[in-house]
């Protein structure tokens, strides 16, 4: 069910007193005026109503909240920056929201180990800035960097703009502290890189979308900071040429950091939403934004690689940060620009690289066959085979388009969720990506770590 609305959310006064004792009365928010910002998701498609929002300041306080909820059979939704795009972080049925925003400590960078320990509520931007100040980099980056939290990115195993070179959040995660649904606190933050001592619990929690435990602290790997960056926007006449070019660039450029695709319709929308001048005097069908980064100037290397491509109709190159930001605006503006015309159905999918062009060319007609008033917007991290299919027009609760697109993805051996997770939005289709045996195994894990099923009950499983 797409947009579910909780009826009356009620918090027992006795439970409210216990929560207030645990975290301080000022950190228990009750009433629509105080909780509104936590009740609805970023897209506006998923709307809920929380019984209350609690804002713990320590892991011990999170453990106390879980203990209270277990004893009083109250369900809990963990929330970070509430930028998730699959309706996973909102209280659809009157759950208690546990907001990690106060747990935003960013520790000292350990320059020798190239690691940092941070609170789950620290924003991605704060962690990236801290790494930068120490001469290093945190490899995960995404458009919602100023609001998305480390806890949220761990819970969703966020991918982002630099996945191509550095992998996703799981690859950066060395250790976690978390309170499980059992009430147990686990903490493994020592930062040892070689540590084969049984199940790797950080990996299990990463991508679990708040269904197994609440992450409170994380130990993260930092990467080399590449101070020399060059961004190029390449224009193509058709999708096949653009996809072929990405394949060639990936094989020629080890220093490639991002490869993002968007189409002329999306570019026009972004330009009109933000009053931007288009990048080229004439329009082109497809655009690919490529960024390379190195410890020395990579301009000549990128130019030589682009020279080897066929089908490139125009190129804009940016070497300084202002020009680069201007080129990135065309790509990063997509999510916000699409939101200005309605709450979109967001289908974030991966295709095998050899099916990408076929998918991009065909999916708009599949959407139109289901709903001829719908508009399809396509953009994404093409270097990873990851396309964001956004559809505007269908009502929030009308899932016919979602069904058609996700089934098409599965028929091409793709994944129905590349990086946003399953959340509430895609739980009906989990079986398209996972076998019965896999889903049952996931349920076994859920039963073991959250025996009372109080953690994120609306997420992942149908
Ligand atoms: C403009 C824009 C661009 C984006 N670009 C990308 C992108 O490139 N790549 C990408 O992967 N995503 C992207 N996203 C999606 C979103 O930013 C990520 O999913 C991000 O990881 C969510 O972080 P958050 O703190 O906002 O989490 P929330 O939205 O608050 O929560 C997301 C999920 O994580 C759970 N959760 C949150 N905190 C915790 C915790 N401490 N412990 C346990 N569970 C928790 C929630 O219950 C929920 O299920 C984008 C979103 C926007 C709005």
What does this structure look like?
With 462 residues, the chain is of the alpha+beta class. Helices cover 34% and strands 21% of the residues. It has helices spanning 13-23, 32-39, 59-71, 124-133, 150-156, 163-166, 169-172, 201-205, 239-252, 264-273, 299-307, 321-339, 356-370, 400-411, 436-449; strands at 28-29, 52-54, 76-79, 96-99, 106-110, 115-119, 136-137, 173-180, 185-187, 213-221, 223-224, 228-236, 256-263, 286-294, 312-318, 345-350, 375-380, 386-392. A seven-stranded antiparallel beta sheet has the order 15-12-14-13-17-18-16, with helices on both faces. The longest helix is centred in the C-terminal third of the chain and has 19 residues, at 321-339. The radius of gyration is 22 Å and the shape is globular. The model is unreliable at 1-7 (pLDDT under 50). Flavin-adenine dinucleotide binds at residues 42, 77-85, 88-89, 100, 120, 142-144, 147-149, 151-153, 155-156, 158-161, 209-210, 214-215, 335, 419-420, 456, 459.
- Share in helix: 25-40%
Bound molecules: flavin-adenine dinucleotide
**Cα-atom Rg, whole angstroms?**
22 Å
The major sheet is characterized as: 7 strands, antiparallel
Distance between the termini: 10 Å
Shape, per Cα inertia axes? globular
In total, the number of strands is 18
> Total number of helical segments?
15
Low-confidence sequence ranges: 1-7
- Biggest sheet, spatial arrangement of strands: 15-12-14-13-17-18-16
Produce a short descriptive summary.
This protein is α+β, with helices and mostly antiparallel strands and 462 residues long. Helix content is 34%, strand content 21%.
């Amino acid at each position: 069910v797409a947009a579910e609305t909780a009826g009356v959310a009620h918090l027992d006064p006795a439970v409210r007193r216990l929560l207030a004792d645990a975290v301080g009365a000022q950190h228990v928010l009750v009433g629509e005026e105080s909780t509104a910002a936590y009740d609805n998701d970023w897209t506006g498609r998923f709307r809920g109503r929380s019984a209350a929002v609690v804002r713990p300041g320590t892991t011990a306080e999170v453990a106390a909240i879980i203990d209270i909820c277990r004893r009083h059979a109250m369900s809990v939704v963990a929330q970070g920056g509430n930028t998730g795009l699959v309706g996973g972080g909102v209280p659809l049925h009157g759950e208690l929201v546990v907001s990690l925003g106060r747990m935003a400590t960013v520790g000292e960078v350990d320059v020798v180990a190239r690691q940092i320990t941070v609170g789950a509520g620290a924003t991605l931007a704060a962690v990236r800035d801290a790494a930068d100040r120490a001469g290093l980099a945190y490899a995960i980056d995404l458009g919602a960097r100023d609001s998305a939290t480390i806890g949220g990115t761990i819970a969703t195993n966020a991918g982002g703009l630099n996945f191509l070179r550095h992998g996703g959040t799981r690859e950066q995660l060395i250790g976690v502290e978390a309170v499980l649904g059992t009430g147990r606190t686990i903490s493994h933050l020592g930062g040892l890189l070689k540590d084969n001592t049984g199940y790797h619990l950080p990996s299990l929690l990463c991508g679990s979308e708040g269904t197994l435990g609440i992450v409170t602290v994380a130990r993260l790997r930092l990467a080399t900071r590449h101070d020399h960056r060059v961004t190029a926007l390449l224009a193509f006449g058709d999708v096949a040429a653009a996809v072929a070019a990405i394949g060639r660039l990936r094989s020629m450029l080890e220093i490639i950091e991002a490869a993002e695709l968007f189409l002329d319709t999306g570019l026009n929308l972004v330009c009109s939403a933000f009053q931007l001048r288009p990048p080229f005097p004439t329009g082109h069908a497809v655009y690919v934004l490529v960024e390379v980064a190195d410890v020395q100037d990579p301009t000549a290397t990128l130019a030589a690689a682009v020279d080897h491509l066929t089908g490139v109709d125009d190129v804009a190159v940016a070497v300084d940060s202002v020009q680069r930001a201007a080129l990135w605006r065309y790509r990063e503006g997509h999510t916000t620009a699409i939101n200005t015309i309605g709450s979109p159905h967001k289908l974030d999918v991966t295709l095998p690289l050899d099916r990408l062009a076929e998918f991009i060319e065909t999916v708009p007609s599949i959407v139109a066959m289901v709903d001829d008033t719908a508009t399809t917007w396509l953009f994404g991290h093409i270097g990873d085979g990851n396309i964001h299919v956004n559809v505007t027009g269908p009502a929030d609760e009308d899932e016919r388009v979602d069904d058609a697109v996700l089934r098409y993805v599965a028929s091409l051996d793709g994944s129905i969720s590349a990086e946003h997770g399953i959340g509430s939005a895609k739980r009906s289709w989990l079986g398209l990506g996972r076998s019965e045996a896999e889903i049952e195994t996931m349920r076994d894990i859920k039963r073991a770590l959250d025996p009372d099923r109080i953690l994120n009950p609306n997420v992942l499983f149908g």
